[in-house]
Fold each of these.
Amino acid sequence: MAIDLTKVNIPFNRSSLVGRELEYIFKAMSGGQIAGDQTFTKKCHELLEKTLGVPKALLTTSCTHALEMSALLLDIQAGDEVIVPSFTFVSTVNAFVLRGAKPVFVDVRPDTLNLDEAKLERLITQRTRAIVPVHYAGVACEMDAIISIANAHKIKIVEDNAHGLFGQYKDRNLGTMGCMATQSFHETKNFTCGEGGALLINDAQYIERAEIIREKGTNRSRFFRGQVDKYSWVDVGSSYLMSDVLAAFIFAQLEVWKDVQARRKRIWDYYHENLAGWCNRHSIRRPVIPEHCRQAYHMYYMLLPSLEIRQKLISHLKEKGILSVFHYLPLHLSDMGLKYGGKAGNCPVTEDISDRLLRLPFFNDLSQDVQANVVEAITSFTF
Ligand SMILES: *Cc1c(COP(=O)(O)O)cnc(C)c1O
């Protein structure tokens, strides 16, 4: 039976326990050692390394910090250029701008809303040091083309894989194709401990320095492995380690990753099937998942015909107690983006879709009954 919509309040996102979180947090506390790199952190590293097939995974305090580490590891300097999509979260860019780099914004493809590889090459200059593809909504960028362009110009790739953990591109795991990749365990992501992240390192030459940068510029990790007899200041660095309490939390989620992803697939498929008829009748575009991509089921969005209709639908849903939200505003047109030369018209696809995109409630314990009400509310909207 349909729930009375005037009485429900459906958030856009809500975190929930998916496994043994409380037990593990208790265990971490009982062990008496809850700083970084303790038992649960090591378990997370091993799980990510084994499951994804990456040489090294390091838990961090956030994806933002993992991105900052990648900029330090690549030795990004003032005057360097880094190519980033304009349609992304601010941290993708800020991490490099903090080192003095100039962001060069690339538009996205109209289908997947991922960095448009066809527009990449013309943006490359002598100063280009890195390309940062973001696998939007957990659907892979066209990595073959991006990798071949990057290799031809000797430019590094850092995958911002905040949305894409456990997604695949042509049978390759997302996060394993750049020299490094970053993950987020923020509460809005598929797997969460509130705030957290990880740096995945695929090119082994960066591993040792990554450990040092993450440990305040000291060789403390080598000391703990018995490789040096005292530890000291050897490089620049900061404190990017996650507390083992949070590692216990995120380990409980990661160890049941298949269940979580199966749940999210059901939620995604339900929207996709049940909105198909209405969307088709009103020329509303649903997400496009290319045949060769196995998506990570991070979000469900629709592209409405115009900004005005999207805003009306947001209000319509809000009246029914349902929170739907838009997403990234084009970074090249933000206050900071304008300072780096951003102009209206530079990224026409980004400018267009940013106005029309709407994300629907999507979280691990979203039940089908509640989802049915979201669908009913959407399909009762007229314009
Ligand atoms: C969430 C997100 C981030 C930042 O993640 P934090 O863990 O909150 O720092 C970076 N990039 C993208 C694409 C994101 O969605």
Note: The chain has two domains: 5-12+257-379, 21-254.
Amino acid sequence: MSLDYILTKMNNNTIQTNIDAIRDAVPEHVTLVAVSKTQPLDVIASAYAEGIRDFGENRVAELVEKADAFPDDIRWHAIGHLQTNKAKVVAPLSHLVHAVDSTRIYEALAQHKNPKPLDVLLQVHIAEESSKFGFLEDELRALLALSGDGNETFGNTSIRIKGLMGMATYTKDTAQIAKEFKGLRSLFEELAPSMGADFDTLSMGMSGDWNIAIDEGSTMIRVGSAIFGARH
Ligand SMILES: *Cc1c(COP(=O)(O)O)cnc(C)c1O
């Protein structure tokens, strides 16, 4: 047995243990997205072997390469900030785009012509850090008030607004994190009645805060390092 083989084995066992632990703690109505950005194909393959089918990527080139390498039953989640010129590539590969953070990217994604509407989440800026992307709450309210039902936003039928996404401040202050998630959830609930039945997804929670997010009403968590270890 080579050292490489042993190390790979160890790594795979860790991934299995991590996935099992998270699954045990996550209620059934919450979808676990394994964030595989920067992880090589063999690492993704071990999560796939554990039954994971939802994977999150934040770079377009990586998404393209990985989507090509793996079976079609994987649901790829585009979780990173997108440039409008990448919309055409991302739309047909993505099960769900989490990071629609401007009207421009929304409109760029809406131009794609697939038989099935593209599912997207609107990213809301909830953190104290200015570095994080997303609509301000008031911007989002104004935008959706103008457009009415989510399926007809900006007069478009090739895109479907499934819900909201947000990232909390990177801090040890769990009360602060809970407050930010609570705010996103109440915005979600305020908007839901006018958005239709498709509006059912609240993507919040990462490795450091997914348990807080679930307590605050998350329906989808995006977990990377707590499954795969540190990123490459
Ligand atoms: C990287 C990333 C994650 C996962 O981060 P971890 O802390 O490793 O779980 C989740 N969401 C987004 C938008 C990311 O970019």
Note: Residues 3-228 form a domain with the TIM Barrel fold (CATH 3.20.20.10).
Amino acid sequence: MSEKMNLKEMDQTYVAGTYKRFPVEIVRGEGSVVFDETGKRYIDLGSGIAVTSFGVADPIWREAVVRQAGQVQHMSNLYYTKPCAELARMLCKRTGMKKVFFSNSGAEANECAIKAARKRQAERKGPDCHIIVTLKNSFHGRTLTTLAATGQDHYHELYQPLTPGFLSCAPEEIPELPHPERIAGVLIECIQGEGGVVQIPPEALGRIADFTKRNDILLMVDEVQTGNGRTGKLYSYMHFGLEPDIVSTAKGLAGGLPLGATLLGEQVQDVFGFGDHGSTFGGNPMACAGAISVLSRIDDDLMKEVTEKGNWLKAYFGTVQGVQSVSGLGLMMGIQTDKPAGEIVSAAMDRGVLCLTAKDKVRLLPALNISWSLLKEAAEILKACIEA
Ligand SMILES: *Cc1c(COP(=O)(O)O)cnc(C)c1O
């Protein structure tokens, strides 16, 4: 008990106060089950916000990372290291993209996407072609530039002036925008995660894609949350027949290590030359070894299971008293409830289930390999919390 007080006090004294934490310390886990400092068991439906793709301390992932740690944990980008090149090849082979830039987070992956679009279009069309169009209600990160890309005003207020040259629109407004010759790229999430698990209608996505193609604008898809198998395909754009020029991803890519990746398509594959962009940790061997392990397990069988489990969750919560609607795809689920989402998350935690909120919804992002029995056990508990 005093141990717990000590940790809470120490954290509140010394860690910058940006996070409102639950009064729980997680000390260890096994897959989709984690334990707090008192030994209490929780079923984890949050995966560290879509990060631990195969759960906590997964043995296959751990073996890959620990093996790499015993060989070389970091060397900088001054030298070749195998995991970095192998992972880049893997990502390109599975997406048809041509080259990869590695960083450490989703925000950085988006920064790189924006830099690539700006540089490419400035070279081809001149410096006036620099506007990046994003969607209202989007989330793209916390750096000053990715905040500017984020289409939610409340994130902007404290940090003016943000990077200029961003415009956020409703999906149906984009194809009607005037002066397309000034637009360098359109950056979208197919399913907005932080925005409340909001799926952009497929027809609207199609019209945005047509607009970018017709006007020689780069189509950029933010797959930071939706990527790496989360929605039942490797990347969510693959559900909608999109052919993005740039794809950014992070979160679940390395299964729990910080890794961002910006995938560059044919049009932008050669946009960066020596010294044009960089990252000290980007492409770090341990993170890349973790990602190779994660990606090599995201196959058709797993995607089928993710889809089935997602469909089951949707049907299950669709009939629960107190649920207004269920949104999302695969194991990325938003549940709109009568009761405030925060209350449900707290009640679920008391009863041994960890889940998240997104705007006013309860958000579920379980590990891709969560077992049916744990999923059903957690769903029953959550149902009880929603109905109560
Ligand atoms: C989480 C998230 C980001 C930011 O990722 P960080 O790793 O926190 O920088 C960007 N875009 C989307 C869609 C996200 O969900």
Note: Residues 180 and 214 are 10 Å apart (CA to CA).
Amino acid sequence: MFRKTRLFTPGPTPLLPAGQFAMAAADLHHRTPEFRALFLKVLSQLKSFIGTQNDVIVLSSSGTGAMESAVTNLTSPGEKVLVLSAGKFGERWAGLAKAFGCDVTVLSKPYGETFPLDEVKAHLTPEVRVVFVQATESSTGVRHDVGGIARLLKGSETLLVVDAITGLGTTKLDVDGDGIDVIIGGSQKALMIPPGLAYLAVSERAWARMETSKQPRYYFDLRKERKNAVKGESAYTPAVALIAAMGAALDYLAQQGGGDVAKGRELLVNNAELCARCTREAAKALGLELFAASNGAAVTAIKAPAGISSTDIVKGFKKQFAGVLSDGQGEMKGQIFRIGHIGFLDYLDCVAILAGLEQVLDELKPGSVQFGAALAVAQKVFAEARKGESK
Ligand SMILES: *Cc1c(COP(=O)(O)O)cnc(C)c1O
């Protein structure tokens, strides 16, 4: 059998061919009019993709670099910050804020859960300078109520920083309406290009806060990047080829959206929602349990059935089909497996994953699967959604 290598992980995600071609052709110097024109266009399209009027910065780093920049640009050592944590990426916020000497309070919930707004509210004293949260916690599949949290902060001096690295392009967000001060994305997720770029939109309040922050910063000094971005440049040599790929990906979204990047992003979100819904219902039809109480559309986390390790499901999927699923992270390894819905995946990918999953489960535990059970349910969900569309 032929086996095509395919990523079904919540990042990196499958690559858009137009992005790959753009990378291969990107023989550009970053201090030239050609690059400046490209970068200015990308920055403007990113605003539409994020859905904000705020200035957008692109960093040549993985997503965590942008997370670190939010901590070093917006806090001072000893300052009180609140981290909302219910998974591996929430823990990353806590680790970052502690590494830079913040006085960190962590509102922590078990993996798979989210934060009741009244509990968040109870932690919001005027001393809290910044709240850090994920839009979607990729380690558990949970979508947090960013809008609800933002509304609790309205009228206060507290800044809200959202890691939407898997949230952007999978989640309906109202960045400016809700007053999200910093929202962070990464190239290897919904933008369908390789890892290596992070981007973030920053509110005027947050820009003002940077002037009083006492953390040391150099490469990730966002004020320096902002000054350069106005001219279509970045402070240091940027990952030029990835920026060209990002431009191609945003052009693709614009084209899908009839010339409008924001419409293209809406299609992308709806696409992820539909694949996530098909996957959730299909998992239940196989007698599997979902891990997250409120699953978002970025990734679906599914508990391994009794007697089977999720690690063996992931390995079996790779061995039989060369398809890459994600195991649980950290303590969740062996317990759950995760299927990504982010970016350049469609309904046919979705049913292929489900068919492969039936096959792998049957091989691990012969006779445990009624072939077609997951597919039938996914097809029903898809047919219903189509009816809704044509109305
Ligand atoms: C992928 C991801 C990140 C970024 O991780 P990097 O490896 O630094 O790119 C951060 N937060 C979430 C929620 C993610 O899914």
Note: The pocket of pyridoxal-5'-phosphate is lined by residues 10-11, 62-64, 89, 134, 138, 163, 165-166, 186, 195 (CB under 6 Å).
